[in-house]
Amino acid sequence: MIYSFTQIANYLRCPRSYRYRYLDGWREKETRAALMFGRCFEKALEAYFCGDDCGATLFEEWGAYRQAGFAYKKGETWDRLLRQGIHLLECFARDNRIRVSRPKGNLQIKIVRELPNANQFISYIDAIGELDGVRCVMDWKTTSSRYPDEPTGLLSLDPQLICYSWITGISEVALVVFVRKHQPEIQYLKTSISDDQRLEFGRLLAATIGQIESAQFPFHSGIRFPQNGCLSCSHVGLCLQDQELIDANLIRTSGVDDLAWLDDLVD
Ligand code: SF4
User: Fold this and answer.
1) Which helix (H) or strand (E) holds 223?
2) Taking the CA of residue 199 as centre, how many other CA atoms within 13 Å lie in the half-sphere pointing to its CB?
3) Ligand 1: does its nearest atom lie under 6 Å from the Cβ of 235?
4) Gyration radius from the chain CA atoms
């Protein structure tokens, strides 16, 4: 079995949701404009580091979805997202804080780690390069609101960054957050992951895979306002047996998904 961070995070959030997605084959329909725009923006970043015209790449990639029937949030349009993306690329070039040498080998890096019982863990790392002259693992995010940066040290608890540090063995990690707001902003959030955190992640991974392999998939419903995870769960229609919600949000693929780890490519 091949595992990925997205799969493990999904199980930890709600084992029942994991079962719906990875064993029963229920996938969310890809209609969110912001998600698709994020993928196009990552292609533009790749062009930037390769010395190509990143603005033209963004226009070309996002242009493929101009007529797509995506769900846009209030105030968002195809044109607006493009303008914000171009503005962010200009800011990124002006900031000039990141270096990625040999971009073909240091962007979208596939790393595989062998696990017990012939299992594997796969990660796709957005970039390994230098931020302000320090070598680190970097993850790009596009979002419509700033990431929280307080209290101090909060980022060192980010499970995805801990996972990336675990699989690469690199302690310095960073999130580069492209914030699509009225005045676009880029956050360069850096932290260090300790040896203990990497060891603990390895233990968490082993325990979680043990639970998955022993078929434990209980509901972890979030019933408390305002942190109710069910509200943002694409599988809520299945739990509520609401056919209208199922039809609106989900498609069904054929059962156990051997390529589920590919989810990490779109995360
Ligand atoms: S709706 Fe709630 S209980 Fe059901 S799968 Fe999603 S998170 Fe779990």
Assistant:
1) none
2) 3
3) yes
4) 19
Whether omega for the bond prior to residue 148 falls within 30 degrees of 0, making it cis, is no
CA distance 43 to 39: 7
Helix, strand, coil percentages in the chain from 3-state DSSP, rounded to 5: 45, 20, 30
- Give the predicted TM-score (pTM) of the model: 0.90
Task: Quote the ligand 1 centre to 233 CA distance (angstroms).
Answer: 6
* Cβ partners under 8 Å of residue 48, min gap 6: 54, 89, 92, 93
47 lines ligand 1 (CB under 6 A): no
pLDDT tens digit sequence for 54-96: 999 999 999 999 998 888 988 899 999 999 999 999 999 999 9
User: What is d(CA 47, CA 53) in angstroms, rounded to the nearest whole number?
Assistant: 6
Average pLDDT of the residues in 127-155: 95
Residue 236 near ligand 1, beta carbon < 6 Å: yes
